[in-house]
Amino acid sequence: MTSLCGDIPASALAALHRLGRRRVLRRGEVLIWQGDVAEQVGILHRGLVKLSASLEDGREQMLGLAFPADFVGAIGERSSSHCVTALTETELCVFPRNALPGLVQTHPEIGQVLLSRAYDELDQLRRWMLLLGRKSAEERVASLLLQFAARSTCSRREAVHLPLTRQQMAELLGLTIETVSRKLTALKRDGLIALPTLRSVVILDAVTLAELAAESP
């Protein structure tokens, strides 16, 4: 996915930059709380955040991930249906939510880009629901690796950085750390991936891995 800023004309981008400021979130820090009206929205420059919703008894459901170039938050003045939490140290360019409607009115092209990103986020949410609701453990792990590879800037067969530990991957996928480790080892044994380090992966056979994940390569 291209950067949101890369899709905005220069004049509108300059106006957007005048509103923004840099913010760094520590791992575990929340940008937007579920139930709150977000005062800030942002564009990720570095790091990884999770989108999650919680029930009253404290159980949490993962709704997806946001990567660099993704937009997080909503323009409308309504309560957020989910939390936005940093999984790693994360750098964003944040904007006051209440300033965006006026900016969109002045620069309609920004609104078009945000609307397109909203459709992308909805599509990703549907894919995540399918992953958690219907996919096997093996399919979940394969899908996550493909997602990391797709959002990486690395060339084909280069090592892709894994931004999550095995424990974080397990929590994200609704699995145990033992299951995640076993599935990664099995994928390595079958020649689909290489694991140069604990925090990197090389996709050796993307077509077969996509078939295993029940996704299009």
Could you name the key traits of this structure?
single chain, 217 residues, alpha+beta, Jelly Rolls, Arc Repressor Mutant, subunit A, 2 domains, four-stranded antiparallel beta sheet, globular
What does this protein structure show overall?
The protein has 217 residues and is an alpha+beta fold. The protein folds into two domains: 5-133, Jelly Rolls (Sandwich); 136-212, Arc Repressor Mutant, subunit A, CATH 1.10.10. It contains seven helices and eleven strands. Strands 1-8-3-6 form a four-stranded antiparallel sheet, covered by helices on one side. A hairpin with a 2-residue loop joins strand 10 (193-197) and strand 11 (200-203). Helix 2 (100-106) crosses helix 3. The longest helix is centred in the middle third of the chain and has 27 residues, at 108-134.
- In terms of DSSP E residues, the strand content is 15-25%
Structural class: alpha+beta
User: Uncertain runs with pLDDT below 50, 5 residues or more?
Assistant: none
Q: What is the alpha-carbon Rg in Å?
A: 18 Å
The name of the CATH architecture of the largest domain is Sandwich
Give, in spatial order, the strands making up the sheet with the most strands: 1-8-3-6
CATH topology heading of the largest domain: Jelly Rolls
Q: Give the CA-CA distance, first to last residue.
A: 16 Å
CATH homologous superfamily grouping of the largest domain: Jelly Rolls
| Total individual domains | 2
Helices, by number, come to 7
Helices and strands, in order, run as: HEEEEEEEEHHHEHHEEH
Shape: globular
The largest β sheet comes out as: 4 strands, antiparallel
Number of strands: 11
The pLDDT mean sits at 85
Q: What is the C-level CATH assignment of the largest domain?
A: Mainly Beta
Q: Give the helix proportion (percent range).
A: 25-40%
